[in-house]
Specification:
The complex is a heterodimer of chains A (173) and B (274). In chain A, strand 3, helix 2 and strand 4 form a beta-alpha-beta unit. Chain A is 13% helix and 39% strand. A 5-stranded mixed beta sheet of chain A has the order 4-3-2-6-7. A 4-stranded antiparallel beta sheet of chain A has the order 5-1-9-8. Chain A has 173 residues and is mainly beta. Chain A contains 2 helices and 9 strands; from the N terminus they run H-E-E-E-H-E-E-E-E-E-E. With 274 residues, chain B is mostly beta strands. Helices cover 8% and strands 47% of the residues of chain B. In chain B, strands 2, 4, 7, 8, 9, 11, 14, 15, 17 and 18 form a 10-stranded mixed beta sheet that branches. In chain B, strand 17 and strand 18 form a beta hairpin. The chains are: A mainly beta (173), B mainly beta (274).
């Protein structure tokens, strides 16, 4: 049974690897602190254009989504930069975007050109942002600039120094 | 009618006390930005030399007003009046921007008596009754100056995304009309505001901006600005933090019996990461 599921998943996932889009991996570092709360995380894109052409798209938000009466939602504003850029305009939960906080480790995200939540990403210069804020801890933003579309598979890697580990961005043409 | 009189009496006392203390008045919110669910926000109103430390004296708590995002007024709760600070709380349940403020206005007068001494009204610490002005000033007074003084202290809190319905000016006294939304200020981005005096651009108003935490700095590090011919000013924030903005304006375009107008305004803003 397990094998069947694995196979099914592999079949489902494999075309994504080749479809035009973004593969993002976000490392939540393991922190040796007395009181650890899994961090709130926002992953979003911004175009570097100014004015009306400026474009912001939230790709993933991890927060305490199962707290009673949306209790976790009130801390979303602590993802301060994302909150100002897009978060305060959204209604939670956001289908296909928001989910529970993640444990320490490397988390994979995959977005396909033309499919929700990415939609069709217009040609242009962008910055991928990963913002992490932890209750009783710090806050950090990692930026990965890139140009879309790409002609051949292209990879970028940046790293935070405290709350965010490695962030990799793989672009598929 | 009685209420109106009391209000005027009280207001004039407030204006007099604000002038007497050289301290700056400020209204500090516990939060300027709340999640979409809203909640309680605590406020402290006091005056001091340092922002935002409680080492001055609390002015008498005048009526605090709250304009909710739907432009209706909202109730203030859990009022505490102390020696060092006045506090209250507001439950914010609507999406959008709340304006929380205290404002008042009144007449003050000063003159020189026939034998060259200085006279002023209302007497220090006394309540001013506008009806008494005529009898308070001696018939032979020289260089009589009657000032229509207004004062406003305010701050802004937004639940979810910022809105502008609560930000409309009343066209009375010195007021700030935001071009940049007051809950959308970011470090390294300039913010633009317009100042109005009784609804008209306050040209040449003096603006002072000080970052909080002055106790821990060697100098107050204030920034000074002046509004242009349209009453506009552009503030360049240097970093994130809570800021105090003070504005003052004076002219001689008052309605009788006043000979001059003066307006004082202060607001607390939070400047966030870009």
């Amino acid at each position: 049974m397990l094998k069947k599921i694995t196979l099914a998943c592999a079949l489902l996932l494999s075309p994504l690897t080749y479809a035009a889009g973004l593969q993002i991996s976000v490392e939540i570092p393991k922190l040796n602190v007395t009181e650890y709360h899994t961090p709130y995380t926002a992953v979003w894109l911004e175009s570097t254009a100014e004015g009306d052409k400026k474009f912001t798209k939230t790709l993933a938000v991890w927060y305490a989504d199962k707290k009673r009466e949306g209790g976790g939602e009130k801390w979303l504003k602590d993802l301060r930069q994302w909150w100002r850029r897009d978060g305060r305009n959204l209604t939670f939960p956001v289908d296909g975007v928001s989910g529970a906080t993640k444990l320490a480790g490397v988390h994979q995200l995959s977005f396909t050109q033309g499919a929700a939540p990415l939609g069709t990403l217009p040609k242009g210069d962008y910055v991928l942002f990963v913002e992490v804020a932890r209750e009783g801890g710090g806050r950090e933003v990692v930026r990965v600039p890139f140009t879309w579309p790409v002609e051949k598979p292209t990879s970028f890697k940046e790293s935070g120094s405290a709350e965010v580990g490695a962030v990799t961005l793989d672009l598929n043409p | 009618m009685k209420n109106i009189i009391q209000c005027v009496l009280f207001s004039s006392a407030m204006v007099a006390s604000a002038v007497a203390q050289a301290h700056s008045t400020w209204l500090l919110p516990s939060d300027t930005s709340k999640g979409n669910k809203g909640g309680w926000v605590a406020f402290d109103l006091t005056s001091s030399e340092e922002f935002f430390t409680f080492n001055g004296g609390a002015p008498k708590l005048g009526p605090i007003q709250v304009i909710a995002p739907d432009a209706n007024t909202t109730e203030v709760q859990n009022i505490f009046e102390g020696k060092v600070r006045n506090s209250f709380e507001v439950e914010m349940t609507q999406q959008g921007t709340y304006k929380v403020f205290n404002t008042n206005s009144g007449l003050t007068a000063r003159w020189e008596t026939a034998d060259g001494k200085r006279g002023f009204w209302p007497p220090r610490g006394a309540k001013a009754d506008p009806a008494e002005l005529a009898t308070a000033v001696p018939k032979d007074a020289k260089n009589l100056e009657v000032t229509q003084a207004s004062r406003r202290v305010e701050t802004f809190v937004t639940v979810g995304a910022p809105t502008r319905e609560s930000l409309k000016p009343t066209n009375q006294g010195l007021e700030l009309v935001p071009v940049t939304h007051p809950n959308d200020l970011a470090a390294s981005e300039a913010s633009e505001f317009i100042f109005l005096m009784d609804g008209k651009p306050a040209v040449g108003a003096k603006i002072e901006v000080v970052e909080g935490g002055s106790r821990y700095r060697l100098s107050p590090a204030e920034q000074n600005y002046e509004t242009d011919k349209n009453g506009r000013v552009k503030i360049q924030w240097k970093k994130t933090g809570m800021y105090w903005l003070g504005a003052s304006y004076k002219d001689n375009k008052a309605a009788k019996p006043a000979t001059g107008r003066s307006g004082s305004y202060s607001a607390t803003f939070e400047v966030l990461a870009e």
